Amino acid sequence: MELRDEDMCFVCGKKNERGLKLGFSLDKEKKTMETVFIPGEWQQGYAEIIHGGIITTLLDEVMTKLAFELGINAVTAEISVRFKEPVGLNDKLLVKGQIVKETPRLIYAKAEAKFEDGSLAAEANSKLIIV
Prior knowledge:
Layout lengths: L24 E3 L4 E6 L14 H18 L4 E10 L9 E10 L3 E10 L4 E11 L1
Antiparallel strand pairs: 1-2, 2-4, 3-6, 4-5, 5-6
C-alpha cells in the first residue's frame, strides 16, 4: 500500500478548510520534526482548556508525518499519551517528534508538546506499522 498526500490532512493539509494547516520543520539527519501550535477557542473541551484529543492528534501527526517525510509508509498502530499540564487558550506549544528505533516492520517514535517556557504539556510514545 502506498500512502498519498492530497493536502487534505486535518493537521497539515493546506486544502482542508476545517483543518489546522500547520507547517512542519524536518531534520532528516536527526530524524526529528517539529511544529508550533497556537490553539483556538473552537478547540477547547472544558472552558478555556484545549481538548486532549487535539493535543493527542498533534503528537500523533508529528510522529507519523515524520516517518512519511523520511520515505517510510507507516501508520499508527499504537499510541500512548501522558498529559502533564492542561493547555489553555493562550498557550503556544512546540510539538516535536523523533524516531527512536526502526525494525523491518515497526517504527518506534516519541513526541512531546512543550510550552514556551520549556515545561512539558504532554508526551507520547507510538508504534508505527509499515504498510
